[in-house]
Amino acid sequence: MDYQKLAKRIVQRATKKGASQAEAFLEVGRQSTVRVREGQIEDLTQSTSKGVGLRVVVKGRLGFAFTSDFEPSGLERLVDQALKLAEAAAPNKLNGLPGAKELGRLGDTGALYDAAVANLPGDWKVKAALEMEKAGRAEDARVATFNSVGAGDFVSEVYVASSEGMSGGYSGTYVYLFAMPVASGDGQLQRGYWLDYKRFLDDLESPEAIGREATRRAVRMLGARRVKTQQVPVVFDPLVAASFVSGVARAANGNAVHQQASMFASRMGQKLAGEHVTLVDNGLLPRGLATAPFDGEGVPTRRTPIIDRGVLTHFLYDAFTARKAKARPTGNAKRGYNALPSIGASNLYLEPGQKPPEQLIREVDRGFYVTSLLGHGANPVTGELSAGANGLWIENGELTHAVQEVTVAGNVLKMLQDLDGVGNDLQFRGGATGAPTVRFRGLTLSGE
Amino acid sequence: MPRASAPPRRAPPSQLAPLAARRPVPAPLLPQGLLERLLAVAMERGGDFAEVYVERTHSTSVVLEESRIKSAQTGLVQGVGVRVISGGKVGYAFSDDWDEPALLRAASTAAMIAQSTGAERAFPVSRVAVPSHYHVPTPLSDVEVALKASLLTRADKAARAFDSRVTQVNAAYGDQTRRIAVANTEGRYTEDTQDLCRLSVHVVAQGKKNERRTGMYGGGGRVPFTHWETFPPEEVAREAARQSVATLGAVDCAAGPQTVVLAPGWSGILLHEAVGHGLEADFIRKGTSLFVGKLGEKVASELVTVIDDGTVSSGRGSINIDDEGTPGERKVLIANGVLKGYLYDSLNAKLMGQRSTGSGRRESFRHLPIPRMTNTFLAPGNHHPEDILKEVKRGLYCATFGGGQVDISNGNFVFEVSEAYQIEDGKLGRPVKNATLIGVGPEALKNVSRVGCDPRPDPGMGICGKNGQSMPVGVGLPTVRIDNVTVGGTQVG
């Protein structure tokens, strides 16, 4: 089936039936995941999926419907429903699809599709998963079992067509490995987690490396104990730093800022952090997981520095909010076929600094190296962060014993000011948000 | 790591759901002959068990922002999943294309997990009647969208009228009418229709010097649309607004161990995280939960009795059948502090020589079923809630809650307190901000020293995440006192 044509046909059908504007967003994909357990396949899942969402504007009113039923009757119902829903919405003269000016010229994404991933032999994932499990066990005898270990891939196609002249599509590939061993010792069970997730097979770390690192992370947590309540320098490993970074970026959501419901509201242009802090959203990052020529409503993606050498410089916008805030859309409309676009980050990362992570730790007299967080992260309205933390204690610049059942708490705005070290080890581990190791001058740790 | 989110209190008046009018039985989702053909293909390589899962979900959602209905949307998602079990191995394939050839392809893909050539066999199924724990005479998908939208405009008005410091109100309504059918090679064929709705209101209040506080409240369940007559959007909105205004001027929370008193209702997330997930049979079978091998042991204070109940009338987590076709159950997990049982889906039950407790749930046909909670609550005790508070000299009263998360291996769990007050000499003092509680499941439950006589379910908006799958769940707790809990905060000393 020619999905690009189908998307256009749905748009034409909607305008013919009375929509002043219409946009179809269509996704098609196939994927497969395998998990193994004790040298055997545990489960294997394969699927194909497709769906289309239709956004219409009728007299300034917005309607949206989606379906995975591509039969002619299903598509006809889709059009009728979207039109009917527009009647229920309030008219808003800001409503409208991105126009020619916003659609503009597409940037250069480089390749998004790897034939080697799309044509992975059926047993590649099984072998990779078995190898991960074996390497994870070989690394340390204290690995008792795995909660989960596996591999997967998927291939997806996206098509957008609109009455305002948008017509485009692209396809991409993804491949990933994950291992979650559980180590047993000192009367404790401790879990480790490590993974890699890439568009290109060549970029993916070896299954052996993933298995070994996952085990190291589990085993080093054995013997974990609480520490006293105190304020100390705190170092976040790249995985934890990435979740901090995504919390910071949630406050850069242009809609929340416009509604004054963000800790960043009325702080544009202010110096929030030191010169060494640059936080970027980049929809055109070469080989990035979220790299795409256009966003969920056809607007070209771009590089947007949110914090540039410490200064708050940009917020993220979709077309609607940009219009509302009299700003420029940044190509940050995120969506699946089953939802209207909303503002979200693409490839989001804290730019790396000069110091190796070991040095960031070595410079700490007494502190806490955090390797996993529990909880939902920072509140983007108030900036408050209070989360459970696991990790390793730092004494005289050296990692000593494992720590658990403590919390770290602070305010993101204060934490940005206190961010006094950025490592040179930027990595994108579990997705499109990346960070290097970072260090905060002082955070409150709650324990005994 | 499993996590749960959403907030607050107050019981959905589930008993008000009309019991009289029953919906007519709709035509089967897939013809029985086709289901049987799919089972036969799924077993053609000699699997031990096969199951066909059919799902069709209509959903609606409406969003209000800046006092306007921003958007209204509806959608249809439908698909068929075929699962084949061979020894301990599972093959699964699904398709959102209902064409017969596409479905047969899915069945034969799932069959590949089994290795032998197997003979051609027939697997007749017959329909099994199931009990009914929810009564929604008019499917929510049939209710006019304009009526759903009007709930939000009413909520917006009430929240803004509550206090002039309320600066932003975002409200959302969502519902779904989910039909499922499950047929398996044991001859069982079951169907269920699961309506579910939810209204939520987020409020931002602004105080002096740009101080912003947030409030959130909402509710719903497997209830008819008339639910909103007895649980009106104005009440929801006022509670969200109250929270946001009440916490203006909150002081930094003291870090370190404290005595805490939990308000009834949504605080049930404590049980969900502290013990519920650790009792799910997949973690038990794999030996990755700290509750492995503890059946019959004392794992909590004797005041603690924990129940998971899929049969609560109209409850958000209630199920007539789980997503493997097994009827929902009421199950005592911990009785007076002693561990009594685990939560099983059919696969883990089989591998462990047990029977399913009706806990096999899946987000959609795109996922394999896994053991999950339904409505999890703490049985009430004898203490009067006012006395519980009065006895505390210094501590923290936790009134409303955000989400929680647990690491089931080491048992560390957190839950976020969105509205809290200092307790001084048995009375509530200043509001406190940025508090999180952390503990290890069994240790925290051993420190439960008072259990109130005021059981209360949450208002019906909990979402539980596990292995990337989100499920609606209910929780509930009476007023509870726990001693020596580590409270995360920013204030030292």
Number-wise, the strands of chain A total 21
Q: Strand-residue fraction of chain A?
A: 35-45%
Quaternary state reads heterodimer
How far the N terminus sits from the C terminus of chain A, by CA atoms, comes to 63 Å
Q: What's the main sheet of chain A like?
A: 7 strands, antiparallel
* Overall morphology of chain A: globular
Quote the average pLDDT of chain B: 93
State the helicity of chain B in percent bands.
Answer: 10-25%
What is the radius of gyration of chain B computed over CA atoms, rounded to a whole number of angstroms?
Answer: 24 Å
Explain the overall architecture.
The complex is a heterodimer of chains A (448) and B (493). By secondary structure, chain A is of the alpha+beta class. In chain A, β1 and β2 form a beta hairpin. In chain B, α1 runs parallel beside α2 and α3 runs parallel beside α5. Chain B starts with a strand and ends in a 5-residue tail after the last strand. At the A-B interface, β2, β3, α2, β4 and β6 of A face β3, β4, α2, α3 and β6 of B.
